[in-house]
Amino acid sequence: MFKKSHVGVLIAAIFSQALPVFAASDADLQALRDQMQQLRQHYDQHMKQMKRDYELIERRLQQAEVASKQAQTSSKQAEVTSQQAVEAARKQADAAPVIDNGFTPAIELILEGTYAQMRKNPNLAATGFSMKSPLQFPGFNLGESDLGITANIDPNLKGVAAIGLEPTGTLFIENAYVESTALGDAFKMRFGRFFSGLGYLNERHAHAWDFADQPLVYESLWNNQIGEDGIQLRWRAPTAMFVELGGEIGRGRNFPATDRQNRNGAGAGTLFAHIGEDTTETSWRAGASAYQTKRVDAVSSAVPDLLGTVGGVNNSFSGDSFTTGLDFVWKYAPSGGNRYLKLQGEFFSRRENGLLTYNTAGANVRDTYSNTQSGWYAQSVYQFMPHWRAGLRYDQLNPGVATVGLLNVGNVISNYAFKPTRTTLMFDFTPSEYAMLRLQMIKDQSRQGLFDNQFLVQYVMTMEKH
What we know:
Layout: H1 4-95, E1 106-117, E2 139-141, E3 145-154, E4 157-165, E5 171-180, E6 187-195, H2 216-221, E7 227-236, E8 242-250, E9 268-278, E10 282-303, E11 313-332, E12 340-358, E13 365-385, E14 388-398, E15 403-404, E16 421-432, E17 435-445, E18 452-464
Antiparallel strand pairs: 1-2, 1-3, 1-18, 3-4, 4-5, 5-6, 6-7, 7-8, 8-9, 9-10, 10-11, 11-12, 12-13, 13-14, 13-15, 14-16, 16-17, 17-18
């Protein structure tokens, strides 16, 4: 065993060897402390710099926000000032005496004429139909020329007038209406004489048609176009897609209505709805419409009824007439605008129910009568190069099968068993937006036993300020 003296000597030896080790570790620790202090100082300096940068950016942001608010306030103040100036100028103008500064409406004169080669009489109606109003006659023909005048009446109204010249030389008022301009974007009102909103083509003037004449269904059901003396209201929905609703009431001055010029109230009413959309290269519009009127002793001339003499007889009808229609137009115009394709079609169906008087100048037999007649057309127009277009149209009518009262069963033809058709090929050339020359070739099979191949040349010239 060790003695205490030996243990002491051993402990003393161990401590004498360990002291240098502890001394070296303290130096290292001091060095680490110095490094930590340097890092802390560097970190503090960096944080102070970041704080200064943050405060600088924050001050700039606050200055920018203040400047923006000041600009908005100045803009609003300028807008208010501008509105006040306009209002003051308007009040001053209203209070000022009226000074004649000249009448400067937009005036447009359309000159139209044709040459037509026909072998059959164009005045005869399509088989099974009572009306035909030909716009073309054989030989040279002045056509229908129009003088159009449009001008603002006041800040709320504008006026439109179109005076037509028939081939016979007769002047007539085609349109003469006032249109509102201050009901907002959603509503528009017309009152006066205007083309009805029924269908698609009915509202367009003759010089704006893609063919020289109307489709058969227009000639046979409407006697060309429905023009109304009355009031029309349209509403357009505030949507990206075109949505329009409209209605009108009027005198009913055109076939198939009976003119109520000497009577109170309205003689005809129309409702219509349209939807459509425009994109970069395509556009389309679809519509539906309905027309209601009452006919009173409406005479049909030269009707080839069963017992009719040569040249037919005159019949008259009194009753209700209700028409529904569908229309669609689609146009594709690639970028550049030098070429485009347009497809268009309409369908109408008319139901009439009332009393028919057979041979008003002779037998004068009166009994019940009802019938549904319809017609449609489809056409395509293609501009294949600048200024040049080609078009193709096909028309078809259905005279229907009539329900005839017993007293007239042996007099009136109830079923013609024939569907009138017509095919038209068109070429036109427009050297400018003010001039157009057109050529049409027509295969007319609208009258049973009177088929005809027709040839037509048309010019349409526009005279206006440009």
